[in-house]
Amino acid sequence: MKPDRLYFPIIHLALSINLGCTMVKVTTSEKRNPTPQQVTVGENTTLTTWGTIKVNKAHFFPSSFQLKTDDTIIYVDPVEIGNAEPADFILLTHGHPDHFSIKDIKNLLKRETIIVCPKGVSKKLKNITDKIYAVRPNEQLTFEGIHIQATWAYNTKSVFLRIKAHPKAKENVGYVLTLKNGTKVYHAGDTDYIPETRELSDVDVALVPIGGDNLTMDGEEAAKMVNEIRPGIVIPMHYEIKNRNELKRFETLVNRKIKVVKLDVENQLDKNDNRGFGLY
After folding, report:
1. How many C-beta atoms surround the C-beta of residue 214 within 10 A?
2. How far is 231 from 217, CA to CA, in rounded Å?
3. What is the 3-state secondary structure (H, E, C) of the chain?
4. Is the model's pTM score more than 0.85?
5. Hey, which residues does 91 pair with through a beta bridge?
6. Cα angle for residues 15, 91, 221 (degrees, 5° grid)
7. CB 228 within 8 A of CB 194
8. CA end-to-end span of the chain, whole Å?
9. How far is CA 120 from each of CA 16, 29, 87, 219, rounded to the nearest angstrom?
10. Using CA atoms in the order 16, 18, 78, 47, what is the torsion angle rounded to 10 degrees?
11. Are 236 and 222 in contact (CB under 8 A)?
12. Which residues pair with 260 in a beta bridge?
């Protein structure tokens, strides 16, 4: 394995996270498309990514998205997103720095912003806002027509000895969001292919990690999971953009009835085209 792969910084992260420190530096990638990419995923509903980040030296398509439906703006794991509209909701899956950015959270906050996150993450936000809802896997919340279900997200495989980057005991989460118009979006967070995903149903859009390296599912495992829950649309995330073979393997293995949308820098529209594209 080459030393600039994402694997090594995250091993360091897994080893140091309980010490309250990090050896991982997250910045905006110079390979990022300057135009945020947008896809229509339901009636009056768009999903936007600000694109590639840099995790130490690795150029990496992240798990960071905005969902906008009618008059509601939701962010999941906002990291290095630049200028953006203030949030009605910010959902955080866990506290690793490619998913959790105090800077971005502060930039998106308004007085009414609600933050939903695991208990361990909520402790890091107590001096920023009091509108925090700490959730555990399987817990559910409803706010003015937006239904939020926290899902399990954890590793079954170790990255080093018996150390897991995302141990089940941490109670990190993914989310199933049911929007006002009925569109159901699943953001898996950082997870392996786990039994709990088989309980998901009626998902319209799935955002799934494919990076592998015992940090998340790889392309083959992610395809198995997607083929089980059968969303209408799937968007791969959380992988190095140079890892074209894994992205291709995922796309090849996904059931042909499921639309695969790739939003990383090498699959985006012309850099001067900011119109986005639709699936409906």
Report:
1. 19
2. 17
3. CCCCCCHHHHHHHHHHHHHCCCCCCEEECCCCCCCCEEEEEECCEEEEECCCEEECCEEEECCCEEEEECCEEEEECCCCCCCCCCCCEEECCCCCCCCCCHHHHHHHCCCCCEEEEEHHHHHHHCCCCCCEEEECCCCEEEECCEEEEEEECCCCCCCECCECCCCHHHCCEEEEEECCCCCEEEECCCCCCCHHHHHCCCCCEEEEECECCCCCCEHHHHHHHHHHHCCCEEEEECEECCCHHHHHHHHHHCCCCCEECCCCHHHCCCCCCCCCEECC
4. yes
5. 76, 116
6. 60
7. no
8. 40
9. 15, 28, 21, 29
10. 100
11. yes
12. 234
Nearest to 228 by CA among 202, 249, 189, 267: 202
Structure tokens at 221: 């495992």
Amino acid at 212: G
Which residue from 3, 57, 41 is spatially nearest to 276, judged by alpha carbons?
41
Structure token digits, residue 25: 């530096």
Structure tokens at 214: 């015992």
Cβ burial of 18 (10 Å; 0-12, 13-18, 19+) is: exposed
Q: 67 with 47: CB under 8 angstroms?
A: yes
Other CB atoms within 10 A of residue 253 CB: 16
Q: What is the pLDDT along the chain (280 residues), one digit of tens a residue?
A: 344 445 445 444 444 443 344 578 899 999 888 889 999 999 899 999 999 999 888 898 999 999 999 889 999 999 999 889 999 999 999 999 999 999 999 999 999 999 999 999 999 998 899 999 999 999 999 998 899 999 999 988 777 767 777 888 898 999 999 999 999 999 999 999 999 998 999 999 999 999 877 778 989 999 999 999 999 999 999 998 888 888 999 999 999 999 999 987 665 544 433 334 344 3
| Sign of the torsion formed by the C-alpha atoms of 223, 226, 230 and 236 | negative
Residue pair 257/227 in contact by the 8 Å Cβ criterion: no
